[in-house]
Amino acid sequence: MIVTCIKYNRSFQWIGNVFDPLRTSYTSSLTENSSKYPRTCFRPNFYYEAIEINVAKYDVYNFVADGQMKTVGYLYRDKFDPFRPFDASSYLITKGNDAGFSDQFRLNHFLEKEITYILVVTTFRENDTGSFTITAFGSNDVTMKHSGEYNRT
């Protein structure tokens, strides 16, 4: 079944089963004590948090941010290397930015069970701080947890 939704004079299509999606939320803050990395080349002043994501079923999952600052999200498969975030071997899957939605990112992607994904939440502007909430929507359970300190293994 194909469902079409028209909102903000844009048309979005979702292909799949019609369901009342499950919601999972994760809340945190980027502070002056958060880790930094170069979101853009040669500008290492972007605070970030890496969130480990696992799903129970292969399907499309949507991630929506809500924060005090303009957010950007990057989805990686298996691991995230803050020293090489855009290298071809960095496992970057997709990027989400505001796309016209109140300065907050949205991502949607097919995710597989038994694969670890890393969602990197950062800011559009250097040195921005503030709290944020990520809400995951999907047909099955999504687990989100802070991935801990960076480990280059």
Global shape: globular
If you compute it from the alpha carbons, what radius of gyration comes out, rounded to the nearest whole angstrom? 15 Å
State the helicity in percent bands. under 10%
Low-confidence spans: 1-18
Mean pLDDT: 80
- Largest sheet report: 6 strands, antiparallel
What's the total helix number? Answer: 0
Distance between the termini: 43 Å
Short synopsis of the structure:
This protein has 153 residues and is mostly beta strands. β1 and β2 form a beta hairpin. 0% of the residues lie in helices and 53% in strands.
Topology, element by element:
Layout: E1 2-7, E2 10-15, E3 22-30, E4 36-37, E5 46-55, E6 59-67, E7 71-77, E8 92-96, E9 106-111, E10 117-123, E11 130-138, E12 142-146
What does this structure look like?
There is one protein chain. The chain has 153 residues and is mostly beta strands. The chain contains no helices and twelve strands. The chain has strands at 2-7, 10-15, 22-30, 36-37, 46-55, 59-67, 71-77, 92-96, 106-111, 117-123, 130-138, 142-146. Strands 4, 5, 7, 8, 10 and 12 form a six-stranded antiparallel beta sheet that branches. Strands 3-11-6-9 form a four-stranded antiparallel beta sheet, with no helix packed on it. The protein is globular and about 40 Å long. The N and C termini lie far apart (43 Å). Mean pLDDT is 80; it is low at 1-18.
